[in-house]
Design brief:
Elements: E1 2-6, E2 15-22, H1 24-28, H2 35-43, H3 47-54, E3 64-68, E4 75-82, H4 91-107, E5 112-116, H5 123-137, E6 158-162, H6 171-195, H7 203-217, E7 220-224, H8 226-231, H9 235-241, E8 249-255, H10 259-262, E9 268-278, H11 287-290, H12 298-313, E10 319-328, E11 340-342, E12 348-350, H13 358-370, E13 376-381, H14 385-391, E14 396-399, H15 403-416, E15 420-422, E16 440-441, H16 449-458, E17 466-470, E18 476-477, E19 487-488, H17 493-504
Parallel strand pairs: 1-6, 2-4, 2-5, 5-6, 9-10, 9-13, 12-16, 13-17, 14-15
Antiparallel strand pairs: 3-4, 7-8, 8-10, 11-12, 14-17, 18-19
The protein binds ligand BES, manganese (II) ion and zinc ion.
Length: 508
């Protein structure tokens, strides 16, 4: 889909579908609707307001109303998209509406569309959000559908964002549009990785993807094999990997700015959980919980997606990404409940549940990443079902003892339109990880499972400002919603991007 900015009259936009986002207040006062609604209503000889009233379309945030224009406007169809209350507006509302809009465009087979940007405070943010909503909403994963390939493609070829009246194109708006395209492409790429089945996306395949990103974005990359992982004394990672016949890989992918620009600057570090399939190991998962476990590398996908963006942003500081990729399988060499492992840090861990594998791999990888002395370290992991129970499918759980770092991530998430919620990393619960025979167990009691997991990770990050994002819930969406498709969401790419932008002084 080609995306551009346009200026001009709403009723003179020639296209298959005109998307018109409206606030509740734009329609509420029948005597004085908003100017774009009035313009369209006049062109359609009163049909817009009449049908809206008849169909009880009030501009609510989940409402939509489709009309044919029968040549009374240049667009063939108009779709009114509800934005809800104007006072509650934020760009994310527009992002969701744009996503619904493009899905509707597909259903009616529209090849060209125009989205009329609403009049709202921050036009730049709205351009970015609308573009992202369209591009993310366009996403589908049909690589393995053989029948659908024969059908004519129902794709929107050309979309423009129509600026509100009395606003002009500017360099700033063009840049916002371009950034939205880079970020959306990276997010959709991350979604593909997560949706890809586990027999295809093996640890080695993940390593190849990292290499590819490095080639395309002129980043540096190292992909280490099992022998090197053992040589790094990563006893936790090695143990998790040993139950599978698929070899593990340890990925280090990084961006290094020209020396003059980063003199003395400590790196930003991202770590992603990269379990390409989590069977639970010998603590085997029941079928129903196992079927989703190809998505257990969503943290890695987000980190790689973000690195694609970083390669384009070229911030004035280094950015490093680390992934410990392996399968968690119950093969003959599998690690056992009862095993005691020695981590890279030297601490010993008694395995009480082989299904708590993510924290083990991350423990070693965080230790290694931490040796760079990061300015800030953020990990993303589909770590616990408990976090999903607590926060559901929309919210990421945010953990960390460093308030400033946590706030920085929460601010970035807010600006990205990704919902996150801080949860306490309560030291009280550390007791539950005490082992009789080793320094720690890998699981505590059932209650507060997301906190125990975060406390486990905390052992490996020293004094570094560190933030742990538990994305078990938001990594996937159980249904189509706004710009989300059912399945992988690519959550995290946008927040990490905003974090880097804010640090580079180019954020909003
Ligand atoms: N990958 C899972 C967590 C998960 C669950 C992600 C559901 C996405 C959706 C993780 O490795 C796991 O199995 N966690 C266990 C931990 C328990 C054994 C302490 C869990 O949450 O049940
Ligand atoms: Mn598990
Ligand atoms: Zn897992």
């Amino acid at each position: 889909m080609k995306l551009s900015l346009a200026a001009g009259d709403l009723t003179h936009q020639k296209c298959d579908l005109l998307l018109l986002p409206v606030f509740e207040s734009d329609l509420k006062d029948a005597q004085k609707p908003a100017p774009p609604v009035v313009a369209l209503d006049q062109a359609l000889r009163g049909l817009v307001l009449r049908v809206a009233a008849e169909e009880k379309f009030k501009g609510g945030a989940d409402q939509a109303l489709m009309l044919q224009t029968h040549d009374r406007a240049q667009a063939t169809r108009v779709l009114l998209l509800g934005l809800g209350a104007r006072q509650k507006f934020e760009p994310e509302v527009l992002r969701l509406a744009a996503g619904r809009g493009i899905k509707a465009a597909r259903k009616v087979g529209a090849a060209t569309l125009v989205l009329a940007l609403p009049e709202a405070r921050d036009l730049t943010a709205n351009v970015k959000a609308a573009a992202e909503g369209l591009l993310l909403g366009e996403y589908k994963f049909d690589r393995y559908k053989t029948a659908e390939k024969d059908q004519p493609a129902r794709e929107v070829r050309q979309a423009s964002l129509l600026l509100p009246a009395k606003t002009a194109k500017s360099r700033e708006l063009a840049e916002a549009l371009e950034l939205a395209q880079v970020v959306s492409e990276a997010t959709n790429w991350a979604r593909d990785l997560v949706n890809e089945p586990p027999n295809q996306l093996t640890p080695s395949a993940l390593g190849e993807h990292a290499r590819q990103i490095a080639r395309e974005g002129r980043l540096k990359v190292e992909v280490l094999d099992r022998a090197r992982i053992e040589k790094l004394r990563m006893g936790l990672f090695s143990a998790v990997a040993q139950g599978s016949s698929a070899p593990p890989v340890l990925v280090h992918l990084w961006y290094q700015p020209p020396a003059a620009r980063h003199a003395g600057k400590k790196p930003v570090v991202f770590v992603g959980k990269a379990i390409t399939f989590d069977s639970g190991g010998l603590s085997l998962k029941p079928t129903d919980s196992m079927v989703e476990m190809k998505t257990d590398m969503a943290g890695a996908a987000a980190v790689l997606g973000a690195m694609k963006v970083v390669a384009r942003l070229k911030p004035p500081f280094p950015v490093h990404a680390y992934l410990g990729a392996c399968e968690n399988m119950p093969g003959g060499r599998a690690y056992r409940p009862g095993d005691v492992l020695v981590s890279r840090l030297g601490k010993t861990v008694e395995v009480t549940n082989t299904d708590a594998e993510g924290r083990l791999v991350l423990g070693d990888v965080l230790t290694w990443a931490n040796e760079l002395e990061p300015a800030v370290m953020v990990d993303l992991a589909t770590l616990t079902g408990a976090c999903m129970v607590a926060l559901g499918h929309n919210l990421t759980g945010v953990f960390g003892a460093d308030d400033a770092a946590v706030w920085e991530v929460l601010e970035a998430a807010k600006s990205a339109g990704e919902d996150m919620w801080r949860l306490p990393i309560s030291e009280h619960q550390r007791d539950s990880l005490k082992s009789e025979i080793a320094d720690m167990k890998n699981t505590g009691e059932r209650w507060g499972g997301a906190i125990s997991a975060a406390l486990f990770l905390k052992e490996y990050v020293g004094e570094t400002p560190w933030v742990h994002l538990d994305i078990a819930g938001p990594a996937t969406s159980p249904k189509e919603r706004g710009y989300l498709a059912k399945g992988a969401t690519g959550v995290g790419v946008r927040t990490l991007t905003e974090l880097v932008r804010a640090r580079a002084g180019t954020g909003s």
